[in-house]
Structure formats: structure tokens, C-alpha cells
Write a structure and sequence with these properties.
By secondary structure, this protein is an all-alpha fold. Helix content is 78%, strand content 0%.
């Protein structure tokens, strides 16, 4: 098992390196000068040259990237060009909001997707199956930012049930936190709920007519006990795969959702830093999201063995 984990982690290193290199080059090749943004339009040429030398932006791009990568290996992601705050501190301080949003979206997707998939599979080709499949397709098709705007329009502007945006810490006011987080979590989790519904339905249909399911029915077990106790365990493996692959996408989706709902998370930090051309912050956020995707995929692989002991990692 340890050899498997080490091999998977080693295999992800080139992926993270290529991704960080691509982001580094794209940011530096776009128009605009971050030093000019920092100093303003009235800055003298001498001040611009001095600040560029201080930040190391006067060095060739390969040197800048190698210096940044070497520091990142030591845990030093640099300092923000705008605020001079360490990048790691900036990410960590905003991480609780993003984690809360992602967990809430994941819970919503599971609460909706798993029962909907089971109901659709056990009522194959019926009205409930068609309704569940249609809703799942709608959830997958609607972009999260568009769904977020619709939710704000309906529930915040027309019905005035919840505030349109903002964030209150959970421990400070749990009720207000729930009101402010329900719409962004639903907008972010709708697509994953549709994916989980379709995968759960497909996986459960594959095992409903299996021989071990017929044996369980022949023993006199109730159909609900057969489906939940025997079918679910085997049908969950592909669902776990999908969820593991989608966790990174879920975190990436927080960039737009946090911006729409004015949530002070890592996603909004990335957007603000892109507009301000704050290279260290953007690079740090991208590296963080890449590592989360890698670790989520690894966690899904390891969970296979817990759900099905026949699977061995060699």
C-alpha cells in the first residue's frame, strides 16, 4: 500500500509542474505591468526599475520560475505583490470559507443524488425514472454561475427569503451563515448532484439483476433491504470514482461562485489577484488546487479497497 501511495504521488509531480509552468507563463505573457499597478500612473521610471529589481521581475522568465519553484518546495510561496502578505497565509486565512462551501455543496449533491439515483433505478423506465433523469440532466447542463444568478433573482430579490450575498462565520451566527451559504452551495452542488444521480442509477441497474441479488430475494428479504444492503455496496464503487474525480472540479468551481456571492474564500482571492496581476497569489492558488485534485483522486483509489476487499493495490 505504501508503495502504491508513493508511486501515485510521484506520478503527479510532473502534472503539477507542467500546470504551474503553464499558469506562470500565461500570467507573465498577458498585457500589463504589476509594478505599474502597485506604484500608480504617477510613478517615476527610477521607482519602477527599483521595485522590479526588488521583486525579481527584472530576471528572465526561466530564472523567475525556477526561483519560485525552489521556494515552493520549501513551503515558501512568496509574498503578495499588493499587500506583501505571505501567500501561504493569504490562502490559509481564506481556506475555511472555501472548505465550508465545498463540504456543503458535496453534502447537497449526495443528499439529492444518491436517493434520486436509487429511486430512478428501482422504477426503471417509469415516471419517477424519467423525472429523476430529466432533473439530473438539467443539473448537469446548467452552468453553476447561471444557476447562482437565478437563485439570487428568485430567492433573494423576488421572495426575499435569504440575503443575496455576504458571509457570516458559522460560529458567530449559525442561522445567518446557513441563509448565506445555502444558495452558493446549491449552485455549486447541482451539477455534481446530477452526475451522482446518473452514475448511481447506472451502477445500481447493473447489479439489480445479478445472481447474488436474486439469491438475497430468494431468502425472503424485503426488496428495500436487498437494494440497500446488497446492491448499494457494489453499486457505490463507480460513484466513489466519480465523486473523487469531481472534488477537484468542485473546488475549482468555487472561484466563480465565491465571486458571485461575495464570499471571502480562496476562489475570490484568485479572481481579485488575477485582475490585480498579483502573480504570487495566483500561482499559489493554482498549485493548491492542483494538489487538492491529486489528493482527492488518491483518496478515491484508497477507498476502493475499503468498499471492495477484492481490489488490491500492487
Amino acid at each position: 500500500m505504501l508503495r502504491f501511495i508513493a508511486a501515485r504521488l510521484a506520478g503527479t509531480v510532473p502534472v503539477v509542474v507542467v500546470l504551474s509552468l503553464a499558469v506562470f507563463l500565461m500570467l507573465h505573457l498577458t498585457p500589463g505591468d504589476p509594478v505599474q499597478i502597485m506604484l500608480g500612473q504617477d510613478a517615476t521610471p527610477e521607482a519602477i526599475v527599483a521595485l522590479r529589481a526588488e521583486l525579481g521581475l527584472d530576471q528572465p522568465l526561466p530564472i523567475q520560475y525556477l526561483r519560485w519553484a525552489a521556494n515552493a518546495l520549501r513551503g515558501d510561496l512568496g509574498n503578495s505583490i499588493r499587500t506583501h502578505e505571505p501567500v501561504s497565509n493569504a490562502i490559509i486565512s481564506r481556506l475555511p470559507v472555501t472548505i465550508e462551501l465545498s463540504i456543503a455543496a458535496l453534502l447537497i449533491s449526495l443528499v439529492i443524488g444518491l436517493p434520486a439515483g436509487i429511486i430512478a433505478a428501482t422504477h426503471r423506465n417509469g415516471s419517477l425514472d424519467l423525472a429523476g433523469t430529466g432533473v439530473a440532466l438539467l443539473g448537469v447542463s446548467l452552468p453553476s454561475f447561471f444557476l447562482g444568478i437565478l437563485l439570487i433573482l428568485v430567492f433573494a430579490q423576488w421572495l426575499r427569503w435569504v440575503p443575496p450575498s455576504g458571509y457570516t462565520p458559522l460560529l458567530q451566527d449559525p442561522l445567518m451563515n446557513l441563509k448565506q451559504m445555502i444558495m452558493p452551495a446549491l449552485a455549486l452542488g447541482a451539477a455534481l448532484a446530477g452526475i451522482v444521480t446518473r452514475q448511481m442509477r447506472s451502477s445500481l441497474l447493473d447489479v439489480l439483476d445479478a445472481e447474488f441479488m436474486r439469491t438475497a430475494r430468494a431468502k425472503g428479504l424485503m426488496e428495500s433491504a436487498v437494494v440497500v444492503g446488497h446492491g448499494m455496496r457494489n453499486a457505490l464503487l463507480p460513484v466513489v470514482t466519480v465523486i473523487g474525480l469531481q472534488v477537484g472540479t468542485l473546488l475549482g468551481g468555487t472561484i466563480l461562485i465565491e465571486t458571485i456571492f461575495a464570499l471571502p474564500g480562496v476562489g475570490r482571492l484568485a479572481v481579485d489577484s488575477i485582475f490585480a496581476r498579483d502573480f504570487p497569489i495566483v500561482q499559489g492558488v493554482v498549485l493548491f488546487l492542483a494538489l487538492v485534485r491529486v489528493l482527492s483522486n488518491l483518496a478515491a483509489d484508497l477507498l476502493y479497497g475499503r468498499l471492495d476487499p477484492r481490489i488490491a493495490h500492487g
